[in-house]
Every structure is written in C-alpha cells, then in structure tokens.
Design brief:
It is a single chain. The protein has 287 residues and is α/β, with parallel strands linked by helices. The chain folds into two domains: 147 residues, Rossmann fold (3-Layer(aba) Sandwich); 132 residues, Hypothetical Protein Tm841, Chain: A,domain 3 (2-Layer Sandwich), CATH 3.30.1180. Helices cover 41% and strands 23% of the residues. The protein contains eleven helices and 13 strands. The strands form three sheets. A six-stranded mixed β-sheet has the order 10-9-8-13-11-12, with helices on both faces. It has a four-stranded parallel β-sheet with strand order 2-1-6-7, sandwiched between helices. Helix 3 packs across helix 4, helix 5 crosses helix 6 and helix 9 runs parallel beside helix 10. The longest helix has 19 residues. It is globular and about 55 Å long. The two termini are 34 Å apart. It comes from Planococcus lenghuensis. This is Fatty acid-binding protein DegV. Keywords: Lipid-binding.
C-alpha cells in the first residue's frame, strides 16, 4: 500500500534537523559553479569550504536550478511509494526550481501539488511545517497545497546584505545601486516582497544601525500582531546573530528565536556577513 503524501523542497530552504530526519521529506539540491567545477549545494560543498572559496575566488561563482530530468528521476522513484507529493520551492521570481520540479513531475507522470513559497530560507521551511500540521488535521493534499499558497502573505523578512559586490555580480543589484552603496559605505536592507521579488527597502550607515533596524522591526510586529516566533539566519557571523537575539529578547522576553546558517547557495548571492530576520505575521490560530 502506498503512502499518501511525500514532501519535496530544495536547498534554498533552511533544512532543520526535523526535515532532515523526516522519512517523507526530500530535498533537491541546487548547483554551485566555480568555473568548470560544479557542486551540489550542501552535498559536495560545506559552508566552510564555500567561504574559503569565495574569499579566494578570481571568478564569481554562479548557481543553477536542478534540471527537470533530476526531478523526474526523483518522482519516478517516489511514484512507486507515494500516491502524490506537495512541493514547496523557493520563489519562482528568483529561481526556476519550481518550474523544473513541475516539469519533472509531468515527465514522470506523478501527481504533484506545487506551492510557490514566494520566499527563501525559513520562509519555505515554515510553510512545510505548517503543512505537516494541516496533514495531521486530515486535509487532503490538494487543500493543503491551496492553503499553504494562501498563507505565503504571512511571511515577513528583513535582510542586511553582507557583501554588496556579490549581490551586484550575481545580478540582484544594478550598477548605480552598487556604486552608491560602495561609495557611501551603506548597508542596504532588502526584502523578499509578497510577490516573491528581492527589493531594497532601506539603507543604514553602520552594522550597529542595521542590527537596531532589525530589532525595531521585530518590536513593531510584536506590538502590533503579538509576533513572538522569530528566525535569525546568518552567513558565518554567529556572534552577531546571537547579539541580535539577545536584543530582541530584551523587548520580547518570552520570544522563541531560532538561529541558523543561511544555505550555501544563498550565501553565493548575499555574501558572507549577511543576516536575515524572519517571522510569520500570523493569526493566533496558527501559533
């Protein structure tokens, strides 16, 4: 007898220990290219190895989505064991991974319900965790996927970029923004919008002010919506992430704050030193 539902995601998400150990969760890695060398994200390249390579790289690395054929291989295996799957992927405005996943399922003739998270990192993870809850409540896969797609608007995120050069060379910032940012030594604050696009929303003149900016946004959400679950994702700056957590706890003493590392494929674009603060501005019934 087949299992009712598999869960698919990709390495742009924050892969918690729960997801790693979950028997029905499958993570498809993106690719990182250094010249002629290709590595599977979080499979062939550790975060330490990535930072070493980034510091010494003469040529800026590139990333690419998994091919439809890669997904088809997975779905051909899964259709022997599962009735269907729900796939939660990184924003389709920032990556073609969702399209590859859907194409791979069609090639394998495997029933797939695709959710465009319109997010990255824990924005994807939170939807999957929410999906587990809905599955436990007895919702059918089609309704779970539809509900998750509706809930993407609850996602909130503020990101301080660690390396303007990497963001610029990766095509996420135009030349004028990069020139002015470098000239003025500003730290841009960017956000993944409700439409799933990366957009600059503010800028500050120091790391200290950038951290205070994040604390202020968490404070506002707590006071307006009662938000008390936050995620801090960092690119090799654990001390700053811990400091940010402590500052938020001064305002929201009972907050639950997760600290984790950004996936290597995201670090390629955002750069070492990046810090992201994420949470869901959600109705109380979700908590």
């Amino acid at each position: 007898m087949k299992k009712p539902l598999a869960w698919i995601t990709d390495s742009m998400g924050f892969i918690t220990e729960e997801l790693k150990e979950h028997p029905d969760v499958y993570v498809v890695p993106l690719n990182i290219h250094f010249g002629q060398e290709t590595f599977e994200d979080a499979v062939d390249l550790t975060s330490e190895e990535l930072y070493d390579r980034l510091r010494g790289a003469e040529e800026f690395p590139k990333t690419s989505q998994p091919s439809a054929g890669k997904f088809a291989e997975l779905y051909n295996r899964l259709k022997e064991e599962y009735e269907c799957a729900i796939a939660v992927h990184g924003s389709s405005r920032l990556s073609g991974t969702l399209a590859s996943s859907v194409a791979g399922a069609e090639m394998a003739d495997f029933p797939l319900y695709a959710v465009d998270s319109l997010a990255l990192s824990y924005g994807m993870t939170g939807l999957i965790e929410r999906g587990f809850y809905l599955q436990e409540q007895g919702l059918v896969p089609e309704k779970i996927a539809a509900q998750l797609q509706n809930e993407t608007v609850d996602f909130r995120n503020f990101i301080t970029i660690g390396n303007l050069s990497q963001l610029y060379k990766g095509g996420r910032m135009n030349g004028v923004q990069y020139y002015l940012g470098s000239l003025l030594k500003v730290k841009p604050i960017v956000q993944i919008t409700e439409e799933g696009e990366l957009a600059p929303i503010d800028k500050v003149r120091s790391q200290k002010k950038a951290m205070q900016y994040l604390v202020d946004r968490a404070t506002e959400s707590y006071r307006e919506h009662g938000s008390s679950k936050f995620q801090i994702l960092h690119a090799n700056v654990i001390a700053e992430a811990v400091e940010l957590r402590e500052e938020i706890l001064k305002v929201v003493p009972h907050a639950h704050i997760l600290i984790g590392e950004l996936s290597t494929v995201l670090v390629v674009h955002a750069g070492e030193g990046t810090i992201a603060l994420l949470w869901r501005s959600e109705p109380a019934i979700y908590k």
